[in-house]
Design goal:
It is built from 18 helices and 12 strands. By secondary structure, it is an alpha+beta fold. The strands form 4 sheets. Strands 3-4-2-1-7-8 form a 6-stranded mixed β-sheet. It has a two-stranded antiparallel sheet with strand order 5-6. A two-stranded parallel ribbon has the order 9-10.
């Protein structure tokens, strides 16, 4: 076990509180996957955790530590009931590890580890891990109604881990898929992001279609080529209700425009920049080395690279400052990028006088 994580568990144990690693970190450890998100469940009450680590309590009845690369959440054993808008209205702090595990989502996320590295598997999570199964803890019909986000989480884990959904969970999702429409758009996007950025994304998309979740969420797509860039993935999907930032919207529009042109040349590189063209190139199956070589050979990459200033144009042509200067620059950009005009001041002057 990592020494930093062990030191947190040891501190809790030395003060008389049974404590365990639980959830994704243990699951990933058993699968040989490196993880930096750590969950610790403990007998210690939130105020006791706060006192021991001198940190403020968080909204989940515990505390958060940032140590080196690790994000560590410490929460008290608890039971939850009477869910409303995905949140339990009744939370009781308890002294039972098993009762705490029963409130969680999937068996593969219920496996624990103590500070000595011993595995504690009270809900047969390892069996489902070995079977490559995503199985709900308890009644999946009840669990999905308590928190519909678990539907998307199930699909995300099936995608990322390349596991299959348990038959009972499959049936529960088929009966409750419309509940996803009650989730916030931000929550939906966060889960979809994690599905799309994974190389196994097609499995996730197939499950979304299978359960009619594409209709509920409002997604439309055809064939999608994988890109390491998330915005490149979203650029291949029509998603009117997904909350993108203004920068994300702009990048999606620009990538889509380059894709529709189906060609990457000096003009597209000049207009949209290297980043947009590299992402579009991945989608169009154009070798990124070819795009980079083309970019390096460009005679100009920006208007400021043109070898004549605005004042020089005004004096040369004896004209007033106006929108005409912008029109002239646009013409120069096209001529230089198309190779019809060299980016040399005297050549440009000669060309402008001919066009006067």
């Amino acid at each position: 076990m990592n020494k930093l994580i062990k030191s947190v568990l040891t501190k809790l144990e030395e003060n008389g509180y049974k404590s365990y690693l639980v959830g994704g970190y243990v699951r990933d450890y058993l699968l040989g996957i490196k993880s930096y998100d750590v969950d610790i469940c403990t007998e210690a009450l939130p105020k006791e955790i706060h006192f021991l680590f001198n940190i403020c309590t968080n909204n989940y009845g515990g505390a958060n530590l940032k140590i080196d690369k690790y994000n560590i959440d410490i929460t008290t054993f608890r039971s939850e009931s009477n869910y409303k808008n995905r949140k339990p209205t009744e939370v009781k702090y308890i002294g039972s590890l098993k009762q705490d595990l029963l409130r969680r989502d999937f068996t593969i996320n219920s496996i624990c580890m103590d500070k000595e590295g011993n595995i504690i598997d009270l809900l047969n999570g390892i069996e489902d891990l070995n079977k490559c199964h995503i199985k709900m803890i308890g009644d999946p019909y009840i669990k999905l109604k308590e928190d519909p986000l678990r539907i998307l989480r199930a699909i995300r884990f099936a995608t990322v881990l390349d596991f299959d959904l348990d038959n009972e969970l499959l049936d529960a999702i088929k009966c409750n898929y419309k509940l996803v429409g009650e989730l916030s758009k931000e929550r939906i996007k966060a889960e979809l992001d994690r599905i799309l950025i994974n190389k196994n994304f097609q499995k996730g998309l197939n499950l979304l279609k299978k359960f009619k979740l594409t209709e509920v969420i409002g997604l439309d797509y055809q064939d999608i080529n994988y890109t390491k860039d998330l915005i490149g993935m979203w650029a291949q999907i029509k998603a009117n209700d997904i909350p993108f930032t203004n920068n994300e919207k702009s990048n999606i529009i620009n990538i889509t425009e380059v894709i529709n042109k189906k060609v990457i040349d000096y003009k597209t590189l000049y207009k949209y920049g290297l980043y947009i063209n590299l992402i579009a190139g991945m989608i169009l199956n154009i070798n990124p080395k070819k795009i980079n070589r083309l970019y390096k050979k460009m005679p100009i990459k920006d208007r400021k690279d043109i070898d004549i200033k605005g004042n020089d144009i005004i004096n040369l042509l004896n004209i007033e400052p106006s929108k005409l200067i912008n029109t002239i620059y646009e013409d120069l950009e096209n001529k230089i990028l198309s190779g019809k005009l060299k980016n040399e001041k005297e050549k440009i002057k000669e060309y402008l006088l001919q066009r006067k």
